[in-house]
Amino acid sequence: MTSVHSLLKQPPGQQLAFIAQPDPQPVAEALVALANAEGGTVVLGMDPDGTLGGVYGEEDAADALEAALRLCKPPMRTEWSSETVPGGAVVMLRLERSAQLHSMADGRVLVRRGAENHMVEGEEFDALLSARPSGEYELQAVAGAQRSDFDEDVIDDYIERRQKRNPRHTVLPKDKLLQQIGALTEDRTPTINGILLFGKEPQLFLPHSRAIFVKFADVTPRGAGGEFGYGRREEFIGPLPQIIDRAWRVIWEEMDKRSVVQGLNRVEQTEYPASAVREALVNAVAHRDYRLSGRSIEIRMYTDRLEITSPGGLPAHITLDNIVEEHYSRNPRIVNGLYQWGYIEELGLGIDRMFEDMLRDGHQPPRFEAKPHRFSVILANARDAARASQQWEGTMSDRQMKAVEYLEQKGSITNSEYREICQHVGAETLRLDLADLVTRGILLKIGDKRGTRYILK
């Protein structure tokens, strides 16, 4: 641990606090603020100018820390050491940034900003909370819930589909399996995860775990006559699989459909690619922040776009810049449950496929909006019927034409697949071919490094 002499050369700041007296209240406030920010060190028994306060021995330090931790909810783990200085002793408390959100016993949530502790609330609190992983939240027991609050038919359906997906897995007794997947505690109390996936009426315990669909007759929230309002509103409740199914059914009913002739076949073409809509819907249900109460998933259908918004900002290290390449599950047990159920086909590829499906059908790529307390997927229904190979045929080399023809048949192409169809051309030349098509707006690059592939834009 850093010595007190080196710390005295630094002023109080984002990761350093000085507290001269053994008063549990300011110690607790500093611990909570640092744990909710970037972590750091609290120097006990000394002011920033080096003036000694209370003289600490190890026993005094332990008592002061214990009293301070009783004021923190939940308490955090600290490492501490004492150091003798001229005229007395000081104690240094070191703590890391916490995966949990901490508060004072009186309910205040503090975060370190510069050299001060700030109280946060409202949207700022939501943003701070949504930046934390919620895996442990999924395992919390639901107060007042009992094993009888589970829907046995829903559980049986899950087990049947799970077994089909994993035929070699051992068939466990029902309650043993529910405990294994984090749906039941050891004393058979339903968890957040369990109530959301299997509850008869999850909204009795988690009222915000619903979804709302609204259809507008304009590009703004207006009704058919131009007044503010909507044409149809539906609310979906029940366990998460039923919310997905019911919401999808309504979206399907409200989407425009037309028949087009492809070759000798008549094909139904929907306003939005069905697979892209389902992916956006499932992602909203799987990845929303269920710790944020008072907000539900919102599905808004306008005449020019479909917006699906889920409470909670982007989790952990995910940003709008890396959302295609990086993957992170805020609710890993809910995600795994929906995967075993079959709502998620392959983990980690949903955003990629949404891009591919929208572009394949002539739409613009999906847009994403990330706010501290919500995340939106926006699908536009404007369709460009021109095919890429027809539009740029005269400006591409023979090799590039082969790449586009391959894309029209397969949907995507990788560098190694391009080398297979142009075996006598150098790898660097082929890489530059694809980079040129990306620069000219003909192809869209998805993924990074070995996972890179290209689709028609």
Write up this protein.
The structure is a single chain. This protein has 457 residues and is an alpha+beta fold. The protein has helices at 4-7, 24-36, 58-69, 122-130, 135-138, 152-165, 174-180, 192-198, 240-254, 274-287, 332-341, 350-360, 388-391, 398-410, 415-421, 427-439; strands spanning 16-19, 39-44, 72-73, 79-85, 88-96, 103-104, 110-113, 116-119, 211-215, 232-236, 257-262, 265-270, 297-301, 305-311, 367-371, 374-380, 443-446, 453-456. A hairpin with a 2-residue loop joins strand 15 and strand 16. Helix 2 (24-36) packs across helix 3 (58-69). The longest helix has 15 residues, at 240-254. The relative contact order is 0.08.
Largest sheet composition = 6 strands, mixed
Spans of at least 5 consecutive residues with low confidence: 385-394
Q: Approximately how much beta-strand content do the residues carry?
A: 15-25%
Counting DSSP H or I runs of 4 or more residues, the number of helices is 16
Range of helix content: 25-40%
Number of domains: 3
CATH architecture of the largest domain: 2-Layer Sandwich
Structural class computed from helices and strand pairing: alpha+beta
Compute the average pLDDT. Answer: 84
The count of β-strands is 18
Shape: globular
The CATH topology annotation of the largest domain reads as Heat Shock Protein 90
Biggest β-sheet: strands ordered side by side in the sheet: 10-9-13-14-16-15
**How large is the radius of gyration?**
28 Å
Terminus-to-terminus distance: 54 Å
Instruction: Return the CATH class of the largest domain.
Output: Alpha Beta
